[in-house]
Write a structure and sequence with these properties.
Strand order of the largest sheet: 1-2-3
Helix content: 40-55%
Number of helices: 4
Order of helices and strands: EEEHHHH
Largest sheet: 3 strands, antiparallel
Distance between the termini: 86 Å
Oligomer: single chain
Strand content: 5-15%
Length: 170
């Protein structure tokens, strides 16, 4: 009987046998359990097609933009292109786009500052979900005390713990 050893991982199976050389096989987790190892779907996935078409379209649009922006008018007329937008738009559209992005970021930061309560407001400490610790539960000696319910620690306790136990430096 042949002794075989194998090492498994999600992507690769390495089999070592005494009678044959080591072989490596790659398995795709998307493959169905068929005898041929082929998936039930044929052809590329739609996301791959959209990505490919999108990348090609981006490259072609960039080349057309650069040709329109930098090639002299006489060269465009010599190849039969007479109607195209003014070169003003080659600078104006990217500038308008950058200014729009900067203004949008500024408005976003400003709206966040406006919607944040002031540091002296009690709304930064308490809200409608705040819970006071329940200290009304009394246990006798020997009773097992359960875990206390979730609650907020009061600001006076935090200040007491942080600042009252500090020895004076003077």
């Amino acid at each position: 009987m042949e002794d075989s050893y194998s090492v498994s991982s999600p992507r690769r199976i390495l089999s070592i046998s005494k009678k044959r050389k080591a072989s490596i096989s790659f398995q795709d987790p998307d493959d169905k359990a068929s005898g041929f190892g082929l998936s039930g779907e044929h052809g590329p996935k739609p996301s791959e097609v959209y990505g490919f078409v999108g990348s090609i379209t981006t490259v072609v649009a960039t080349v057309i933009f650069l040709v329109w922006a930098y090639v002299p008018d006489s060269w465009l007329h010599s190849i039969g292109i007479f109607y195209y937008p003014s070169r003003y738009w080659a600078l104006a559209v990217p500038t308008y786009a950058m200014v729009t992005v900067v203004l949008a970021m500024g408005f976003y930061v400003g709206i966040n500052f406006m919607s944040t309560p002031a540091p002296t407001s009690l709304n930064t400490i308490f809200d409608e979900f705040s819970r006071e610790p329940s200290s009304l539960i009394v246990f006798e000696e020997g009773d097992v005390q359960p875990i206390e319910p979730i609650s907020d620690i009061g600001i006076h306790k935090i200040n007491d713990l942080m600042f009252n136990d500090i020895p004076s430096l003077g």
